[in-house]
Structures are given as C-alpha cells and as structure tokens.
Amino acid sequence: MSSKRYKKLPKKTRDLKPETVDKLIPILKENCNTKFDESLDINLQINNKQKKSEINIRTVINLPGGNSKKVKVGVVCEENKSQEAKDAGAEVVGGDELIDQIKSGNINFEKLICTPGMMIKLSKLGKVLGPKGLMPNPKLGSVTNEIKKAVNDAKSGQVEIRNDKDGNIGVSIGNKSFSDDKLIMNFNAVIDALEKEKSNNTIKGDLIKQAFLTSTMGVSYKIKIGKSI
C-alpha cells in the first residue's frame, strides 16, 4: 500500500516528454517531501550490445560539485607510506597484516587503495574483493604510489561509473540541499565521462539509449540527453 506522502507525488511522469536536467532539477526538489536530504540520481541505459562485442564501461570521475557521501577508505601499502595514508584521512591502513584481515573476511572499508608494490600480494584476494567491487585497479587510480591524491580523490566527490550486464548505470549527482548549479555541473561531468568512454570504444549509434532522473523517495522523469548549461 502506498503512503500518503507517495500518493501526493505526480503520477505517470515517465509518460512525459524528456526535458533537460536544468529544468527537471527544480521539479525533483519540489517532489522531495521527506524529512531527510534526498539524493538525486541519474539512471542510464547504454547501447552495450554491439555486433562484435559487448561494451563494458568502468571509470571514475571527480564530481566538480562534490557529493555528500562519506567514504571509509582503506590503504594497503608499505610501512614507509603508512603515515602519508593516515595524514590524508584513510581510516584503515596496513600492509601484510591488513591483507590477512581482508583474507579472513574482515573488510572494514568502502574503498580500497593499494601501492603497486603490495598489489602482487593483494591480487591473490580477487575472490574476496572482486564480488564486492573493492579490488584496486590501475585504470581507476586506486593502484598508485600517490597515496595522498588517491585518498583525497576518494573522499572529495569521486564516483565510479560502471554498467551492469543489462547496460544499466546508476549515479548520484548530489542531494536536494545542493545548489542547482552544482547538480548541473555534476551531471555534465558524468555525460563528459561517458562521451570519452564512447570515443575510446567502437560503438555504433548513440551510447545512451535512455536516461531518467529521480530522487531517493520520488518518481522518475525522462532526461533529454545532452549537457545542460
């Protein structure tokens, strides 16, 4: 049974014609009638089924408008880099002992960064970290000797863009409390990243088939694809 709050929301919004994000954000905010600061999310379906291959997108971007999520960061590194990791704000730092904890299933972080020198040992834990999406990846900047930068990026608005097997991508661009300008900047950053991925892959036709904007407890609206001003 729908709540009284939900019944007050607009009906059949997916039947409306697509609109640009700058026009939809004020509407979404008006629909955010809960007591908490709802997240505004974009949900995309990409054209990942190609004749010769299946497109798999996995990249990270730094949202220029930031995000409101607090990320608990773990760092696997040599002893001489431990203090750098702690000073940067990493909550869980260690070397071989941390790898042993992870191996035993003790995972107390949401993002894991590793130095190249320790990656050889950590790579053996693919079955533990892989299914959770926590295995560090050089392409995503999480296998690096630049510990300070990696930790700062993870904590200051970095998000991962990754499609599932059906070609769906879900990304939060911020919260209701964010200014419209910051939300638009974050949306544009996501679109830029996807355009870059398209140029890096041999994709026939449009990359994005359809897109929707929704809030945590709200309803979805179709997005007119393209960057907003």
Short overview:
The protein is an alpha/beta fold and 229 residues long. The protein is built from 8 helices and 9 strands. The mean pLDDT is 88.
Please, could you describe this protein's structure?
This protein is of the alpha/beta class and 229 residues long. The chain folds into two domains: 16-67 and 158-222, 2-Layer Sandwich (Ribulose 1,5 Bisphosphate Carboxylase/Oxygenase); 73-155, Rossmann fold (3-Layer(aba) Sandwich). The protein is 31% helix and 21% strand. The chain contains eight helices and nine strands. It has helices spanning 4-7, 21-31, 82-88, 96-103, 116-122, 126-129, 147-155, 180-200, and strands spanning 39-46, 58-62, 73-76, 92-94, 111-114, 158-162, 168-175, 208-215, 221-222. It has a four-stranded antiparallel beta sheet with strand order 7-1-8-9, with helices on one face. Strand 8 and strand 9 (221-222) form a beta hairpin. Helix 2 crosses helix 8 (180-200) and helix 3 (82-88) runs parallel beside helix 7. It is globular, with a radius of gyration of 20 Å. The relative contact order is 0.28. The mean pLDDT is 88.
